[in-house]
What does this fold into?
Amino acid sequence: MDNCIFCKILSGVVPCAQVYADAHALAFLDIGPFEKGHALVIPRLHAVTLPELPEVEAAALGVAIRRVGGLLLSRLPCDGFNVLQSNGACATQVVPHVHFHVIPRWNGRAMNWISGIYDNTAEMTAIAARLRGA
It folds into this structure.
């Protein structure tokens, strides 16, 4: 895709700070990191959202994400990491190319994650049934 910044990175037109690469994926440091070491893992195949990515490519991307997480744990090092992925502008996806954020975390550093709740168990059960197609 000519206007996709991640495709330009993949083609070498735009430089990146690469941390991992294989036949299916590339990982590089995010230029606006939540934490130092925050990496983006992208498929070499252009797809805007995860459901658009062929399953074989999605599976290979999972392997790359696992390897990048291991690199953060062993070589940064950090105590843990988050994996974050967004689909669509409403979900805060900024670059229209599938990508996963692998964000290092350390014990003792706060993370602002406020969870919500369902109104009741029936609501939760109804949503699960709708998602299953029941």
Helices lie at 5-11, 55-75, 121-132. Residues 5-132 form a domain with the HIT family, subunit A fold (CATH 3.30.428.10). The radius of gyration is 17 Å. The chain is about 30% helix and 20% strand.
